[in-house]
Amino acid sequence: xxxxxxxxxxxAQILEQIDESAVERVLAELVAVRxxxxxxxxxxxxxxxxNASHAVNDFRKICGIEAYTPTDNVSELTARVNDDGxxxxxxxxxxxxxxxxxxxxxxxxVGGGNREQNVSPNLVRALEFGQRVGARIAGIVGxxxxxxxxxxxxxxxxxxxNPAAVTPHSxxxxxxxxxxxxxxxxxxxxGMKWESQTK
Length: 199
Fold this sequence. Notes:
This protein is of the alpha/beta class. Helices cover 51% and strands 11% of the residues. It has helices at 3-17, 20-35, 47-61, 74-84, 89-96, 121-133, 146-151, 166-182; strands spanning 40-43, 67-68, 104-109, 136-141, 154-157. Strands 2-1-3-4-5 form a five-stranded parallel β-sheet, with helices on both faces. Helix 3 (47-61) runs parallel beside helix 8 (166-182) and helix 5 packs parallel to helix 6 (121-133).
């Protein structure tokens, strides 16, 4: 079997195995945060940070949700890393943003954060801060979901079908799922450009 066919077969397996009820629970959290005029904060590191930025655009423009990600401001992010260290970057940013119990944290991550292994400790600290202030927590994560899956009110776990391709599949399916969410009738408020065009 060619690697192309193998990779796409893995993607098809993931689609078959995703817990649809978990996706619906994340959808419900997003509907609820907009209904209570809360804000959405999307957190991600590496490729997931790029996804977070794209998702913020979609949640704002398509769904009318006030949304932000700390990684969109590289000056503040690098200043915090330089001055205070990596672990506190997201929690400190959220504190300045006055994160509250009206808000929702949405984590995009391959591993979900793991303090013991020192992987994405800034996600762990951010979620601990969110818990302290009573914010709601959701996630779209891979592997075993890490700290995010343990503390989230709603979390989609991307199934591992090939341990050698956890990162590309996890980050790709973050996009599949958030695009489903923003186009869901319960969330979508504004039309998308190409769907509105006639031939």
